[in-house]
Amino acid sequence: MKQVVLINADIDKTPITRALINAYRAGADRANAALKEITIADLKFNPNKPLLNKLTEGQPDLAEVIATIRWSHHIVVFCPVYKSSINFKIKGFFDRIFLPDQVFIIRNPAFSNDFSGRSARIVSILDEAAWQDWQINQRTTYLPIKRTILEKCRIKPVQTNTIGHLHSLQNPYAQKWLNKLESFGEKLI
Could you read off the pLDDT of 172-189 as tens digits, one per residue? Predict the structure, then answer.
């Protein structure tokens, strides 16, 4: 049984992001995957990385998230992108959990950021300004998460999707993406 972690990185917890997650979940349920979900907006943690580059005391949410990610075989991140960037709390979450540069700095041998053996998918959900910019120059919006965080922690392959601005879930474009995500979940990719 494949173990999948769904990370909801939508700080506003919008219905559109929830619908995309539910579509993936429906497909994964049909594939009999074991699912756990992490909602970044509900976590209590300091998004600023401390100078000593270690998890600080009193932030049990982060320790629980690390345990959940270690449990998984596949990670799916649903990440809204606003004006060509991601929210600071999302960036802080990835910095605190995966600590991509801690291999060189951290002095705690018990902590490892080697998450090899796992695969991932990043679903970038663009706002209108980011979508217009993407249509003009095709600049990828997921690279900060894909290359500098997940791949440095040996999570491979990391597949990506960029979804344009969704005004409503009733239009054909949104329905196409809901069907695609359900298919991805069913194939567990």
Answer: 999 999 999 999 999 976
